[in-house]
Every structure is written in C-alpha cells, then in structure tokens.
Amino acid sequence: MSTFESALMVQDPDAQLVRQLRHGDDAAVEALVAKYGARVYQLALKITGNPQDAQEASQDALWNAVRKITSFKGEAALGSWIYRIAANAAYQRLRGRRPQEQLWEDILPRFDGDGRLIEPHEDWSPRVDDPLLVDEARQIIQKAVDALPDDYRVAFLLHDVEGLPNPEIARALDLSLPAVKSRIHRARLFLRRQLGVYFGRAKGSETAIAPGLSDSRS
Fold it and tell me: 149 and 191 share a domain?
C-alpha cells in the first residue's frame, strides 16, 4: 500500500473502495454504484429537472468517476468528488438544451452602478410563524426555484440544498468563485422577492377580510 493510500484510509471511510477501484476491481465498481448511484441520480434530477437527462448524466458521472479514479487526490471526500463530477455532467446536459426564451433580466433582482439592490424588499420574516402560510409558502418556494434561470438554479441547489461549498461548486461548474457567489446571492434575492409577493398577497387578503369580520360582530 502506498503512502498516499495509507494517509487516505485515515481520512476517508471510502479509502478501501478507492484502493480497489484503482486496482481495477469490478466488485468495487458495483459497490460504488450501489453506494452513490441513487444520490447522484437525485442530484442530477434536481439540476436537469428531467428523469431521462438525470439518468444519462448520472451514468456518465459514475463512469467518469471510475475512469478518472487515478486523478482522485483525496483532498476532499470521495462522495464530494463524485458529486462534483455529477454536478458538472448534469449541468453540461442542461446547457445542451435549447436556451430559455424568457428574458431573465426582467425577473432577477436589479442592482445599480454601486452594486446596491434597486428594489428593496419588505421584511415579511415575522409572518413565517403563521402555520396556515408555511405549507403554501413551501410550494411557492419550489415554484420559484423551478423558475430560476438554469445557471442560477444549479448554483443555488448545489449550495443551499446539497450543501456543497462555493469552491467545489466553482470547480464543478468551471466558474470563478465570485461568479458562484453572485449567482447564489441573486438566486436568494429572487426567491425572497417571490416570497415577499406571496406574503404581501396573504397580508392583503387578511386586511380585506378583517373589516367584514368586524362589521359582522357589530
């Protein structure tokens, strides 16, 4: 066993699997698919939004992980490395589709020349304690995430849903670190605005109903 493999085994619970893959063990390939196949598919599905694309992207990712296992340096966990490959595969498949026709500049938050947000948001956070709104708000969030431009949605999902750190996302998507941070920030602002619209409507509905209730009691 090499010095690299010995050090890797101390840090990564998948070290034995990595060693077997490096030696061309077919059983290790099956073990890799069994352990990470479903998780890779779910990640690809979140990114592409299409089962067939997700299936193909996840297969490509796992095959590339096996084929490039000698390039795995152990700087991150094996799972994180595979996730990075999967995210890139799914993202490339997503970019291969026909470009979205909607002008996303019309819906994304806008900034002035100094980088300040042009459209300030109402603070609706105290209203999230209302149990009647929480379930519907979750649906609004999901619709808003689905409505994000692909580039922004992928960065947001990888960071805020899958928990990947910004540097790994940058490597996976072949982006600069500032670009990743910008996409995540703008995606969050867009989602916040969509929730603000929803809670504003809910507040307006309550305001409209309240006078009627008051009148009925008098």
Answer: yes
Look up residue 58 and give its DSSP letter.
H
Q: Is 117 helix (H, G, I), strand (E, B) or coil?
A: strand
The last residue of one of the domains, among 78, 95, 112, is 95
The first and second tokens of residue 166, run together, are 């910004």
In a shared domain, residues 78 and 123 = no
Q: Identify whether the C-beta of residue 3 lies closer than 8 Å to the C-beta of residue 74.
A: no
Read off the pLDDT of residues 4-43 as tens digits, 9 standing for 90 and up: 555 444 467 888 999 999 999 999 999 999 999 999 999 9
Of the candidates 156, 161, 173, 22, the residue with the CA atom closest to the CA atom of residue 84: 173
Report the domain count for the chain.
Answer: 2
105's tokens: 């500049």
Residue 111, SS3 per DSSP: strand
Give 128-174 pLDDT, tens digit per residue: 555 555 667 677 778 888 888 888 999 999 999 888 899 989 988 88
Q: 77 with 148, same domain?
A: no
- C-beta separation of 161 from 83 below 8 A: no
Alpha-carbon distance of 157 to 191, in angstroms, equals 12
Query: pTM of this prediction?
Result: 0.66
User: Residue 71 sits in which domain range?
Assistant: 3-95
